[in-house]
């Protein structure tokens, strides 16, 4: 059984041609010594694509497949590669789908319980974050502190409140969440971005106004 997956790159704009057979442009490719190869030339043309989204199906298909690969695409905003799905053997996918249909009810009940647990955790965390904001910034209006906490703590948002430091209620992370709110709500920062001012330059312009609000809220 294969231990480590082959990585398949899914370019945003397919342009490359296979270095071996010259077919292209390639929708998916393997990079070997920086040279693109099509899936057929890489010995992966028989695999079928399974998009991400169903963790149980993905896990079972991967475990049942003698050969599999991970499909990734570059995210320009996050400047990193994001997983899009996997390639597995067709028979393995069929077995995985049958297994998932057999225990669909039990998995649905487990997901419901997990969702309730996460919702309760999120309520507790948002309340703790709001309390921390009000301790660090006692001059911050109560409704604004609640708004900042709710915005920064959205699960899966990638905002500072969901980072490890944010979940630990680290002072720097909490201050960063408050600073971001002030920047967007109390300065012309968004208008500057809309008018074409580069992000870093816009932040420099509004920094004095942001710090003035934070100083007032700290008192």
From TrEMBL:
DUF2293 domain: residues covered: 133-218
Pfam family name, one: DUF2293
PANTHER family xrefs: DUF2293 DOMAIN-CONTAINING PROTEIN, PTHR38113
Protein name: DUF2293 domain-containing protein
Protein species of origin: Streptomyces tamarix
Lineage: Bacteria, Bacillati, Actinomycetota, Actinomycetes, Kitasatosporales
């Amino acid at each position: 059984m294969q231990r480590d997956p082959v990585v398949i790159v899914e370019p945003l704009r397919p342009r490359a041609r296979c270095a071996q057979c010259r077919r292209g442009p390639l929708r998916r490719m393997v990079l070997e010594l920086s040279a693109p190869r099509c899936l057929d030339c890489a010995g992966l043309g028989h695999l079928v694509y399974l998009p991400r989204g169903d963790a149980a199906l993905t896990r079972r298909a991967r475990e049942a497949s003698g050969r599999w690969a991970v499909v990734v695409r570059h995210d320009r905003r996050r400047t990193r590669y994001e997983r899009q799905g996997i390639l597995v053997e067709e028979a393995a996918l069929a077995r995985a789908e049958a297994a998932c249909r057999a225990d669909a009810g039990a998995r649905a009940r487990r997901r419901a319980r997990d969702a309730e647990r996460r919702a309760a955790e999120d309520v507790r965390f948002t309340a703790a974050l709001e309390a921390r904001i009000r301790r660090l910034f006692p001059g911050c209006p109560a409704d604004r502190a609640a708004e900042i906490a709710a915005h920064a703590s959205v699960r899966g948002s990638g905002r500072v409140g969901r980072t490890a430091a944010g979940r630990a209620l680290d002072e720097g992370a909490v201050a960063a969440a408050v600073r971001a709110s002030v920047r967007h709500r109390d300065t012309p920062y968004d208008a500057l971005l809309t008018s074409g001012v580069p992000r870093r330059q816009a932040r420099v312009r509004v920094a004095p106004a942001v710090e003035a609000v934070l100083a007032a809220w700290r008192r």
